[in-house]
Amino acid sequence: MTTTEQVPERSASESTRTIEELTESDYEFGFSTDLDTDIAPPGLDESVVRLISSKKDEPEWLLEWRLKAYEAWQAMDEPDWAKLDIAPIDYQAISYWAAPKQKPVLDSMDDVDPDIRDMFDKLGIPLHEQKMLSNVAVDAIVDSVSVTTTFKKTLLEAGVIFCSFSEAVHDYPDLVREHLGSVVPVRDNSFAALNSAVFSDGSFCYIPKGVRCPMELSTYFRINSMNTGQFERTLIVAEDDSHVSYLEGCTAPQRDENQLHAAVVELVAKDRAEIKYSTVQNWYPGDENGVGGIYNFVTKRGRAHTDAKISWTQVETGSAITWKYPSVILQGDRSIGEFYSVALSSKRQQADTGTKMIHIGKDTTSSIISKGISAGHGQNTYRGLVKVLRSAENARNYTQCDSLLLGKECGAHTIPYIEVKNPSAQIEHEASTSTVGEDQLYYCRQRGMTEEDAMSMIVNGFCREVFNELPMEFAVEAQRLLSVSLEGSVG
Amino acid sequence: MLHVNNLTAAIAGKQILKGFDLDVDAGEVHAIMGPNGSGKSTFAHALAGRDGYEIDGVATLDGVDLLDLEPEARAAAGVFVGFQYPVEIPGVNNMYFLRTALNSVRRARGDTEIGARDFLALANEAMELVEMKQDFLDRPVNAGFSGGEKKRNEILQMAIMQPRLAVLDETDSGLDIDALRVIASGVNELRSPERSVIMITHYQRLLDYIQPDFVHVLVDGRIVESGDHTLALHLEDHGYGDFVNHDLDDAAERPLTGATS
Questions:
Q1: HSE on the CB side for B143, CA within 13 Å?
Q2: Which residue from A114, A366, B201, B206 has the least number of CB within 10 angstroms?
Q3: Using the 8-state DSSP alphabet, how is residue B13 labeled?
Q4: Distance (Å) from the C-alpha of residue A389 to the closest C-alpha of chain B?
Q5: Does A405 contact chain B (CB < 8 Å)?
Q6: Among B residues 154-183, those touching chain A with beta carbons less than 8 Å apart
């Protein structure tokens, strides 16, 4: 029998170590693919903006729009209010154009470069239509460009347009011109301005009046090249009485440099339309010393017209730094905005994420459910704005922010902003912070579960309300991803 | 079956069990009674393998050295503890939890896992035992359960896990008389020549419903007296005073540091 003075301390640090081991994981999508890539030299000036525009053979109006954005960006500073420690970004060290070389026109999946197809197979996203989930259409984007979009024909029969942004610029210029920048103005913030100047590709989606999109739409983003930024732009327009559910997923190879991803997503939900937008973000998070990883600086916003509904669901497990606030402008009367979020920060990851709900119309409703998980040395901040303008009679908001801490070196922060200009508003805010208790783990282990399984079960239970909002196939994927991120076991 | 010899346990420098001896044969029901702080719960945790204790001595189940095993391996070896304070696990469906638990143990033993449909049949049977309704399975593990429901859930888990050795730690505490009757009849149903049960309790009351083969009195970390069920009746009348030395200090069972829920 040893002396026992040290016992409690040792046991506490042992528990901490176990949690650390459990939360350290290998990134399973860290491979890179040797693709023959057309890449622009690093650096940004007006000629680069012109180069991108000409590579894409864009109309004059779009080049002008880009140049204005570039000019605006030069005069803007990066937002510095987030609780993030960001190393200075050298915009001149980044390449703004990278595209896998392949046949320019794709009529069917069989025309996709086999290397690219293999890469997506490896990511678990088969691009062969016969191998795919039959109810999900995929737009696959590698570095700067869309390599293929599946089920395009099936969708067109229903009147739904789903294609790469570049194609949309050529095939549906009026639709693009009408809505581009209408929800996220060029000058919204410096990352949005930069994106507007140099965006390379993205997805475009248009649901005509009264149409319920017959399948889930999804975009899969893959950064492959080194030293490149990814600046994609997504625009979804849902006409009156239409309905669409959209999902995006993202991964990147394991590299020692930080890579910048600055995307813009704009949603327009017209009268009585409904857009459900789900994200499973798994960019490379960097290693446990904070080396490498993606800077995920994203501006996402939707405008909901009368009786329309926009719902954001996000599962954010990747990226070294996440700066992201998917928002809804509740412009029309009785419009509804929802935000469901799971954000995991482990290793040295930092996330400052949340939403903005801007109530303008009467009887507008918003709800926010945010689940933050911090592990390792991760720092997780929920930052959310609920703003009720004078015009928004009888606005309602319900916010719930729950934080879960795994380990002793991590942090969770909740920063809600509430601005109410109409006294009829009803605003509720609830927040909680908890830890995965040793007694919870012990209970599960006494019932025969391994510590890893127990941890994963408890964390998934914590996220249940958000996972329930994801389309079925992706809920399973999100749950698996979270387990993998936490367990250190490669699935 | 269970053989415990000179078991000692300390936490935070405090010696709780000071040479605990117990032998339990297959099919037997033993009751361990004792005053607050005598080490009853610590004995259960020492068998289950809770972190934070400094353990020495011998504890084997069917010849397997339990003290060398992780908690989950002890569960696979057949140890089940019905907890005094079952923890809540929000968001995790009770049915999912139970099936994961059962399949973890089956996997560890090299058995095939049980599918959802077969499990449901098994669970329904077990639920009749503790008179639970179907919706019990759909609720999160212990979250929002009443005290009685939590205890019934422990017995439900025991019925599903079919352990070799069940250690029920104050399963009777906080129960009204109806709930006590339900739980006792559940435990009685689960008695079998293959299974041993150790009941840890303060009170004789539970033993009116579940008659033990042996009763042990635990005082200050040691079993000081053993007998048949009449010993419990004696305790009921006379208290623990006969067994407690006056120079005992406050060998209280302390909650583990850092344990939160």
A1: 17
A2: A114
A3: T
A4: 36
A5: no
A6: 157, 161
Q: Is the complex ipTM more than 0.90?
A: yes
Q: Which amino acid is it at A315?
A: V
Distance CA A100, CA A38 (A): 6
pLDDT at A212: 95
- Put simply, the chain A residues between 246 and 275 with a CB less than 8 A from any chain B CB are none
- A320 contacts A294 by C-beta, under 8 angstroms: yes
Q: Does B8 touch chain A (CB under 8 A)?
A: yes
Chain B, window 226-255: residues with a beta carbon less than 8 angstroms from a chain A beta carbon: none
User: Residues A327, A354: contact at Cβ < 8 Å?
Assistant: no
Angle at the Cα of A179 from the Cα atoms of A173 and A184, rounded to 5 degrees: 135
Q: Classify the phi-psi angles of A394: left when phi > 0, otherwise alpha if psi is within -120 to 50, otherwise beta.
A: left
Cβ-contact A471, A247 below 8 angstroms: yes
- Looking up tokens 């299974």, which residue turns up? B195
CB distance B153 to B143 below 8 Å: no
A385 has a chain B CB within 8 A of its CB = no
Q: Token match 């009720």: residue?
A: A388
Task: Report the first-to-last Cα separation within chain B, whole angstroms.
Answer: 34
Q: Does B143 touch chain A (CB under 8 A)?
A: no
| Predicted TM-score (pTM) of this structure | 0.79
- CA-nearest residue to A16 within chain B is B258
| Residue among A404, A442, A464 with most chain B CBs within 10 A, to mutate | A442
Give the neighbor-by-neighbor strand order of the sheet with B14-24.
Answer: B14-24, B2-11, B54-61, B64-65
Residue of B nearest to A465 (CA): B91
**pLDDT tens column, B114-153:** 998 999 999 999 999 988 888 888 899 999 898 889 999 9
Contacts of A435 in chain B (CB under 8 A): 260
Whether A13 has its CB under 8 Å from any CB of chain B: the answer is: no
Note whether B140 contacts A: Cβ–Cβ < 8 A. yes
Is B83 part of the contact surface with chain A (CB cutoff 8 Å)? yes
- What tokens does B218 get? 């635990």
CA A45, CA A42: separation in Å to the nearest integer?
10
- The closest CB to that of A461, out of B8, B53, B91, belongs to B91
Nearest chain A residue to B167, by CA: A446
Nearest Cα neighbor of A308 from A251, A360, A345 is A360
Residue-level pLDDT, tens digit, chain A, 491 residues: 333 333 333 333 444 444 445 455 566 666 666 666 677 788 899 999 999 999 889 999 999 999 999 999 999 999 988 898 888 888 998 888 777 665 444 445 555 666 666 766 666 666 655 455 555 667 776 665 666 667 778 888 899 999 889 999 999 999 999 999 999 999 999 999 999 999 988 889 999 999 999 888 888 777 666 667 788 899 999 999 999 999 887 666 666 677 888 999 999 999 999 999 998 888 788 888 878 888 899 999 999 999 999 999 999 888 889 999 999 999 999 999 999 999 988 888 899 999 999 999 999 999 999 999 988 888 999 999 999 999 999 999 999 999 998 888 889 999 999 999 999 999 999 998 888 888 899 999 999 999 888 988 888 888 888 988 887 767 777 777 777 666 542 22
Give which of A17, A434, A4 is closest to B254, Cα–Cα. A4
Which chain A residues contact residue B105 at CB under 8 A?
Answer: 447-448
Domain ranges of chain B: 2-238
B110 forms bridges with which residues in the sheet?
none
Find, among B129, B134, B125, the residue nearest to B186 by Cα.
B129
Does the beta carbon of B105 lie under 8 angstroms from any beta carbon of chain A? Answer: yes
A461 touching B (Cβ < 8 Å): yes
Would you tell me which CATH number, out of the four given (3.40.630.30, 3.40.50.40, 3.40.50.300, 3.30.420.10), belongs to the domain B2-238?
Answer: 3.40.50.300
Q: Kindly report the nearest CA distance between residue A320 and chain B, in angstroms.
A: 28
